[in-house]
Write a structure and sequence with these properties.
- It is found in: Nucleus.
- It is a single chain.
- This protein is mainly beta and 181 residues long.
- The chain has a single domain (23-167), classed as Sandwich (Immunoglobulin-like), CATH 2.60.40.3960.
- It is 10% helix and 41% strand.
- Strands 1, 3, 5, 7, 11, 12 and 13 form a seven-stranded mixed β-sheet that branches.
- The protein is globular, with a radius of gyration of 19 Å.
Length: 181
């Protein structure tokens, strides 16, 4: 599979044509902090807290979102790329991928989950519950939506999280334990 942007509107994986399909990403849960995970043979995984959650809103003229999501869900995935806080959208993507691969552990790609939201409505979400960072610092995650079409992968949309901090084990405050006798 090649990973190049698609220049023409894609078709659904059914017989319908969808020339007016739009993708919208909404960050529902921002990452705030993380304890630095271990390095070497004994990797002490400490996931980003809270886990990032991104909602997908998929729309097409004169079509219900629910049915459209059910048709598209097996073909959509979201990749989270760790970037330094001072990085811009124009930075070279190959540098971002190298930076990301050196500093992350765990799953940084999520498939689409069709779940019920807090108000009991159906929604489409990407969840990143197993992602850890190896180095202390302040970072953001660039969330990029991809769609598998025929024999290639198409980039569709991206969104960037707010800053979050990663602390070393020495700087993470331990909870105060009080014993009552």
């Amino acid at each position: 599979m090649s990973s190049q942007p698609c220049l023409e509107p894609m078709s659904t994986h059914s017989s319908q044509n969808n020339t007016s399909l739009s993708f919208e990403l909404v960050i529902r849960q921002q990452p705030v902090r993380s304890r630095m995970c271990g390095i070497g043979e004994r990797v002490d995984r400490r996931p980003i807290d809270p886990p990032p959650i991104v909602e997908l809103k998929l729309k097409r003229k004169n079509d219900e979102n629910k049915n459209l999501l059910q048709l598209r869900s097996p073909y959509l995935f979201l990749a989270a790329i760790l970037i330094p806080t001072n990085a811009t959208e124009s930075d070279d993507d190959s540098l971002s991928l190298e930076f990301h691969s050196r500093l992350t552990v765990g799953r940084s790609v999520s498939s689409l989950y069709l779940l019920r939201d807090l108000d009991n409505t159906e929604g489409a979400f990407f969840v990143f519950s197993e992602m850890s960072v190896r180095a202390e610092g302040t970072y953001r995650l660039r969330m990029s939506l991809f769609d598998m079409e025929s024999s290639h992968v198409c980039f569709r949309e991206s969104i960037t999280t707010d800053e979050f901090s990663v602390y070393s084990a020495k700087k993470v405050s331990k909870p105060l334990v009080i014993f009552f006798f």
